């Protein structure tokens, strides 16, 4: 209903401002005229915005909406009726202006009441979809539709009446009647159909607070709540960027030596972008944190303004405009949804009023100032003859707006980030593919976490014990542990995983991956983290990499899915050092067989399986060489033990002897002081091993 009713508004704004601009000659005057019309249209927001918010919070929102719509019904209808009743041209035009002003004023009161009511009607999870619909009809489809409908109406009327049509079927008048009736319909639907808008029993008397106090309180709430402040500033920033693009578009198309058609194309592109952003945005980013999405969208919009500033061809400018629209649309959608979902009912009306008043004022200032500025500066431009580009004031303004917007986006992002420490781009990428990164559980950690990895019979158990003895001798608390099976629950999981040979009783690959992850989650929570928090050196026989190698490469499950599962299980805990004992599967399996115990379910896998596992381990090590010590497992056990002890001693020294000074919040973050790369003979051993693996 809202979408249909706002049909004429957009076209009106555009048409009048262009019309005004064509009435004067000089560039500066054009700028002034274009900006001036828009400024006048948006002026009522300044006066009425604050009042609207208080009305929405103080009185029954349903009655506010119904009264506003009835007023608009009368006002819209009055414009053509005055002319029909035979008023003189001057009176008609004056009344049209007065009525438009009044309609604008009433709309200002209607919107916050409606916006504040919506979150009460719709479950939170559906809020985004509802906003999507409202915004896309208001900003995305309607302006385009309005142009099409008006053009079609015009042609039809002229076609039927062949010649000058009678006054009452003038397309513009028909559109006004249409507007008028759609308002009446909205009023009736809201009054009889959506009684729930009144909320919890209505609020006929409003809270017992003075209007002034309510006003001040609303502003204080916005200023003091970081999320709301970030949202409000971010939305303003997005509108300022959009405003500058609209305000400069006319002159910008000139600097591309493109005509009026190009201007309309550029203007239309912004709205196409808005529709794309609002309509498709949520589908693309899926589970991404909405708070992060908001900041990122503003950065996207601003960066696209930069693209626009640098555009040397109309196609580049159109792409820029579409992206500006998409970014602004997504920011607007995310912002509105966050505001609706996270702000208490009592202050919601005022916050929405500030947003709508603010956006109008920001838009007004951005459009009028920028069109004025480029109008004045339009004649001064620097031609770079060879490239055929002119560096006009328009481009400089766009450049400044883009840079400013990027800073605004980043600062909004920082203020309200709900996943601190989680890297931004991997999170975005993961979300697009349906697996957002989770926040690393933070805890104060002062110990050292060393993990041994490698194939069967590589000598991990042997080396774990050797290292534990060596570190213990240095006076550190050592916790020796392993996966799977270091806890009571783990022992039971281990039985499920490794006994029961093959056939239908064996877990399926995904079940196997989940069981290892379950063992790991419990192990990390009950053994590893508490020990690290105490400052102990934790030495584990296998950890996450085993899952990546065995379940990922071995069972050929997607490695990034297994990785995500493990990082969810561990809350992002990464080892400080992974010692990879690289062994030829033939050698390792023979050694394992030599232990005299029966081969378990995984040991019985094919040689090809174990080959895949081996190369997966080597790939992981090659991807993060700082964190890994790769050793050839064929070396004598004593040599290996010495190399490992040396590296761990170095790490312990690097952390300082007092474990207390290494307190940090752990997560996906690297250690504060990353271990130094291996030196001397250990280096050559590592290289040999990696070399052997290639
Ligand atoms: N560096 C080494 N050289 C030769 N044999 C070794 C070496 N390290 C361990 N072994 C032997 O290989 C077998 C498997 O060792 P183990 O530590 O149990 O490996 P894993 O825990 O990796 O399966 C044991 O019999 C052990 O004595
Ligand atoms: C930790 C882990 C182990 N495994 C496998 C590797 C081993 O074959 C098996 C048990 O490992 P392990 O305890 O090292 O057995 P052993 O001491 O007999 O060598 O579990 C995985 O497949 N995924 C994992 O995440």
Fold blueprint:
Layout (H helix, E strand, L loop, with lengths): L1 H4 L1 H16 L4 H32 L2 H24 L4 H33 L2 H38 L9 H23 L17 H14 L1 H30 L4 H26 L4 H21 L3 H29 L2 H33 L4 E3 L4 E3 L1 H24 L7 H9 L15 E7 L5 H14 L4 E5 L5 H11 L10 H26 L2 E5 L2 H11 L4 H12 L6 E6 L2 H10 L12 H17 L4 E5 L4 H18 L25 H14 L1
Parallel strand pairs: 3-5, 3-6, 4-5, 6-7
Antiparallel strand pairs: 1-2
Helix pairs in contact: 2-3, 2-6, 3-5, 3-13, 4-5, 4-7, 5-13, 6-10, 6-12, 8-9, 8-13, 9-10, 9-11, 9-12, 9-13, 9-14, 10-12, 11-12, 11-14, 16-23, 17-18, 18-20, 19-20, 19-22
Bound molecules: adenosine-5'-diphosphate and thymidine-5'-diphosphate (TYD).
Your description of this structure?
70% of the residues lie in helices and 5% in strands. The chain has 24 helices and seven strands. The strands form two sheets. A five-stranded parallel sheet has the order 4-5-3-6-7, sandwiched between helices. α9 (226-255) runs parallel beside α13. Residues 1-8 and 657-694 have low confidence and may be disordered. Bound molecules: adenosine-5'-diphosphate and thymidine-5'-diphosphate (TYD). Adenosine-5'-diphosphate is lined by residues 454, 456-462, 591-592, 594-595, 633, 636-637, 640.
């Amino acid at each position: 209903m809202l979408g249909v009713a706002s049909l004429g508004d957009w076209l009106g704004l555009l048409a009048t401002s262009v019309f005004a601009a064509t009435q004067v000659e000089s560039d500066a005057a054009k700028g002034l005229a274009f900006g001036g019309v828009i400024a006048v249209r948006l002026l009522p927001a300044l006066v009425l915005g604050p009042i609207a918010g208080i009305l929405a919070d103080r009185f029954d929102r349903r009655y506010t909406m119904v009264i506003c719509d009835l007023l608009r019904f009368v006002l819209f209808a009055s414009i053509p009726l005055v002319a029909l009743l035979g008023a003189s041209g001057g009176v008609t035009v004056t009344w049209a202006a007065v009525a438009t002003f009044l309609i604008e004023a009433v709309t200002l009161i209607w919107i916050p009441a409606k916006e504040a009511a919506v979150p009460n009607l719709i479950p939170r999870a559906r809020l985004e979809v509802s906003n999507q619909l409202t915004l896309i009809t208001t900003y995305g489809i309607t302006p385009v539709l309005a142009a099409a409908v008006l053009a079609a109406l015009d042609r039809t009327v002229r076609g039927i009446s062949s010649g000058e049509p009678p006054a009452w079927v003038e397309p513009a008048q028909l559109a006004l009647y249409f507007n008028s009736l759609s308002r009446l319909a909205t009023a009736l639907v809201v009054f009889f159909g959506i009684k729930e808008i009144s909320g919890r029993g209505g609020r006929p008397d409003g809270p017992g607070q003075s209007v002034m106090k309510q006003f001040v309180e609303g502003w204080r709430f916005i200023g003091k709540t970081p999320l709301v402040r970030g949202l409000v500033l971010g939305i303003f920033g997005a509108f300022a960027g959009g405003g500058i693009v609209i305000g400069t578009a006319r002159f910008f198309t000139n600097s591309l030596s493109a005509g009026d058609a190009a201007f309309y194309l550029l203007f239309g592109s912004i709205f196409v972008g808005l529709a794309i952003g609002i309509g498709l945005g949520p589908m693309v980013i899926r589970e991404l944190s909405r708070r992060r999405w908001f900041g990122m969208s503003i950065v996207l919009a601003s960066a696209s303004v930069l693209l626009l500033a640098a555009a040397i061809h109309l196609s580049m400018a159109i792409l820029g405009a579409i992206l500006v629209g998409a970014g602004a649309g997504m920011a607007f959608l995310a912002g509105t949804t966050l505001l609706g979902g996270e702000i208490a009912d009592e202050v919601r009306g005022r916050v929405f009023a500030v947003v709508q008043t603010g956006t109008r004022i920001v838009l007004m200032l951005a459009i009028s100032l920028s069109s004025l500025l480029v109008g004045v500066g339009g004649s001064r431009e620097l031609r770079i003859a060879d490239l055929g580009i002119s560096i006009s004031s328009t481009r400089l303004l766009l450049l400044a707006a883009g840079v400013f917007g990027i800073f605004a986006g980043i600062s909004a992002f920082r203020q309200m980030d709900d996943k601190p420490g989680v890297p931004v781009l991997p999170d975005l990428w993961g979300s697009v593919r349906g697996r957002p990164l989770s926040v690393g559980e933070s805890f104060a950690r002062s110990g050292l976490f060393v993990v041994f990895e490698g194939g069967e019979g590589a000598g991990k158990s042997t080396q774990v014990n050797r290292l534990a003895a060596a570190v213990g001798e240095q006076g550190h608390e050592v916790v020796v542990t392993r996966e799977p099976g270091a806890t009571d629950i783990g022992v039971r999981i281990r039985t499920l995983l490794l006994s029961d040979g093959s056939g239908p009783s064996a877990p399926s690959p995904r079940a196997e991956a989940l069981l290892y992850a379950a063992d790991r989650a419990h192990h990390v929570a009950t053994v590893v983290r508490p020990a690290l928090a105490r400052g102990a050196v934790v030495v584990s026989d296998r950890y996450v990499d085993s899952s990546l190698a065995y379940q990922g490469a071995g069972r050929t499950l997607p490695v990034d899915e297994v990785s995500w599962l493990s990082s969810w299980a561990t809350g992002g805990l990464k080892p400080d050092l992974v010692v990879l004992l690289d062994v030829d599967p033939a050698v390792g399996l023979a050694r394992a067989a030599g232990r005299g115990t029966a081969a378990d379910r995984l040991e019985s896998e094919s040689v090809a399986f174990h080959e895949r596992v081996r190369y997966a381990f080597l790939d992981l090590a090659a991807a993060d060489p700082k964190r890994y010590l790769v050793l050839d497992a064929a070396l004598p056990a004593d040599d290996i033990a010495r190399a490992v002890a040396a590296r761990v001693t170095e790490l312990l020294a690097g952390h300082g002897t007092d474990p207390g000074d290494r307190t940090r919040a752990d997560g996906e973050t690297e250690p504060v002081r990353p271990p130094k790369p291996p030196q001397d003979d250990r280096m050559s051993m590592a290289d040999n091993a990696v070399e052997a693996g290639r």
